[in-house]
Amino acid sequence: MNAPYPIPQPDPATILSALAALFQPDDVVELRSFAKGGRKRTDAGYFDGEHRQALAEHAVRLNKTGGAVYVTLNPIDPQLLSRYANRVEHGAQATTTDAQVTRRRWLLLDFDPARPTDTSATDAQLEHAKAAARVCWQALRAEGWPDPLVAASGNGTHLLYALDLPNDTESRDLVKGALAGLAACFDTDQVKLDQSVFNAGRIIKLYGTVATKGDHTPLAPWRLSQLVATPERRATVTVDQLRAWMPATTAKRPVQAASYQPGNRQVGAFDLGDFLSRLGIASEQDTHEGSERFKLAHCPFNPEHGKGEAAIFRKASGALGFKCQHNSCSGKEWVDLRALVDGPREQRQGPAVDFSVVLKQEQGTASNNATDGAPASPSWPDPQPLAAKVEPEPYPLDALPLPIRAAVEEVVGFVKAPVPMVVSSALAALSLAAQAHMDVSRDAILSGPTGLFILTIADSGERKSQSDKMFTAPIFAYQDAQAEIAKPVIKDYLAAFSAWEAEREGILSSIRAAAKAGKPVDKLRADLTELERDKPEPPRVPKLIREDATPEGLAKKLQKEWPSAGVVSNEAGIVFGAHGMNRESVMRNLALLNKLWDGGRYQSDRGDEERSRDVRGARLTMGLMIQEPTLRAFFDASKGLARGTGFLARFLPAWPGSTMGTRFYTPPVPGNPALAEFHRRITALLNLPVPIDDDGLLSPPVLPMNPEAKEAWIEFHDAIEKELASGGEYYEVKDVASKTADNAVRLAALFQLFEHGMGSAVGLEAFESASLIAAWHLHEARRFFGEIALPAELADASRLDTWLIEFCQRERTHFAKKNHVRQHGPIRDGVRLDAAIRELAELDRLRLRPDGRKKIIQVNPALMGVSP
Questions:
Q1: Residues 6 or more apart in contact with residue 66 via CB below 8 angstroms
Q2: Which of 105, 225, 552, 795 registers the highest number of CB atoms within 10 A of its CB?
């Protein structure tokens, strides 16, 4: 590649140093490289300890051609050397598997900054990764973990902790759980800890080679990867230390580093290092209870308070604090220390230092500017809980199979729609493409369809239609191609049917004439009967997407035209508000849709052939978006039947927050490679032969679960079942919860088919991913159905409370103008907004204050994790 700026080159000495740090002298190591550009190819070779120099030379050669170069991380079976002994096989067919690892030697923490697919990181993104890794490193050191190897991967930061564990299922689950718990605590909006690196056969960047993602540009350059810290391997992380970071444990941790934002450690551009210089007191840095601690040589307020008795603290969230151990200084806080050095806040130029300081000082300061505009107010009492509220959880994006996740991230980066909505579009497309080709079984008796019912609750304008189009494009293309192919067949059918109709009309005319003349008609009747047997059948042409079909019309299409369909619509009012959902017919149509989800047979005798239905061997996907008022109206109109019949319980619901107001334009990734790969796989599924029998009914093969996946499914099923009893966590949504295990196995089957094609049983990895996603949707059901069953004023209060907290955290303020809330918040009706404000004010969660002719809503600081 010709570039006007230097391209870094791989460094053999750095490679050899990395190999010495990572491996024992007699370890066999696999070198693996993925060719960049052109036809995809994997090159691999195995090298023993005596040929490390040859390994480095091959790595340099492969890297200089643009290939990404990796090595196995853990010790492997030395017999693998005989595959490609001390050489590289181009287009290698065999590489190291998890089972061929002899022991787990390293735990990899890979902090990867968020960025468009197939691009190198910018300098700013790299700084985010370094900062997140630093916070994690310090927290783990405070818990007694040994110091890790630290590496710059080129696009992120690696921490490599020493392990000494067997390669077995227990160790795998332990490492996987620890990664999940660490990610929950240290993920930020800008940086994610890679949870997929739990497998024993994991490969890692070979330090000393160049990271070559995308093109080498000044904004996102290629960089040399390298180890930057190599402490002696004196101790290993213990099983108990890993177990302490399992999700069940980290959920109870008092300090969650997930709120840490590397680029916004303090409000504004406050520089703690610069402040310490201006303070003029020597300090020593360490960590204490998860915070950075700067122990001062003496107390700024009393020099007699000696070394180590006074300290400045910086929490993972960026909040600053000060403490001196002496009683005479017990009242001194960070705000006092800042004022001692830089003067009172009102005399200082520039933004505030710390969010907590801003809030404390603004509560006593009246101002008219945009930052300090809240009027003075007395101190805040503790906010009372909003009993109706179930807090939202972030979507488990990392649980999606990588090709789906990459496509979703690519679409989210461009469309800027809420993540759960974009995922719902992707899953609906996958369900529709796959449902005709397989069912899934849990055991010999329990088996059924893989089609999903997905419901997203959001306002109009959230870009559901655009998201759907990006994922359903290959389905529409498939339909169009099939319609084009069928044109000659349809013409032949129409000609044959016209001839048949003419012949039938001739026989009927003869019967009428004979009857009128009193002549016998037995032979004519026999001819008519024989003709009816030869009636031409219309050709079945695949049409999968039925956006505006009523339940009644949908049943007809499935029965007469094509037995697999999807109702994919960004205006689900077409479905929920259709004439077929009126009071007289809602029970019948809900029963029809329930049967289609179950894969059962639906029969309805309406008195004539045209209106009677016998729908069987059909499969249905629903991917709907509906506005909350429309859904509430449907609840009211159905008189409880929507839940009472189990209809809504079959859906995977999502109720995401709006992204409106933050959707600033970003150009799409050139070529949308991740989305293109998604399209390719969907097209491959659509082109599989559809298993339709002679009666026109679907008879898809049944995909089983392997023993490990089945065991995990049973555990998942039983854990939910325990919580359905009175007083259980899922008692209030037991209708939804009782379907969650079924939805989980449907998702697992879809993931298995999407990643591995037909023929393989549902595996443990697919089910574990699916169970995380199904559990998230169950939580969303608790959120939505817990609020939709409430009186409207309580539901409004809950929604307003959530919106205000998110707004204040995003804008780094503690108030919002009431007019702005009415224009952009979740409640536009003035009377309802006032009622919600009164409800929250009575709970000490907000205050309404005058600001000239306008009004301002102040949010209790404690709701944002700040002491009032």
A1: 1, 35, 36, 37, 212
A2: 225
User: What H or E segment, with its residue span, contains residue 329?
Assistant: none
Report which DSSP code applies to 292: E
Contact at 8 Å (CB) between 397 and 419? yes
209-240 burial code (b ≥16 CB/10 A, e <16):
bbbbbbebeeebbbbbbbbeebeeeeebbeee
Give 708's Cβ-side CA count (13 Å radius).
11
Q: Is 205 helix (H, G, I), strand (E, B) or coil?
A: strand
Separation of CA 731 from chain center = 26
DSSP H stretches of helix in 645-733? 673-686, 707-722
pTM score above 0.85? no
Torsion of CA 92, 94, 96, 102, to 10 degrees: -130
Q: Which of 498, 587, 510, 580 is nearest to 535 (CA)?
A: 498
Residue pointed to by tokens 């469309």:
415
| Closest to 597 in 3D by CA, of 647, 644, 634 | 647
Give burial (CB, 10 Å; 0-12/13-18/19+) of 464: buried
pLDDT reported for residue 388 = 52
Joined together, the tokens standing for residue 671 give 């070529």
Quick check: helix, strand or coil at residue 343?
A: coil
Structure-block tokens of residue 595: 């049967």
Task: Please count the other Cβ atoms lying within 10 Å of the Cβ belonging to residue 48.
Answer: 17
Q: Where are the beta strands (DSSP E) in 114-193?
A: 149-152, 157-166, 191-193
293 pLDDT tier (thresholds 50, 70, 90):
confident
Length of the chain: 868
Residue 337's nearest CA partner among 351, 357, 317 is 357
- The whole-angstrom separation of Cα 544 and Cα 853 is 57
**What DSSP designation does 78 have?**
G
What are the CA-CA distances from residue 584 to residues 22, 243, 296, 631, 647 (Å)? 72, 57, 78, 19, 17
- Are 430 and 750 contacting, i.e. CB atoms less than 8 angstroms apart? yes
| Structure tokens, 147 | 């110091």
CB 453 within 8 A of CB 652: yes
Which amino acid would we find at residue 459? D
d(CA 782, CA 649): 11
Instruction: Write down the H helix ranges in 244-286.
Output: 247-250, 272-279
In tens, the pLDDT along 244-283 reads: 888 765 443 433 333 333 333 322 335 677 677 777 788 8
For residue 564 the two structure tokens come to: 């697999």
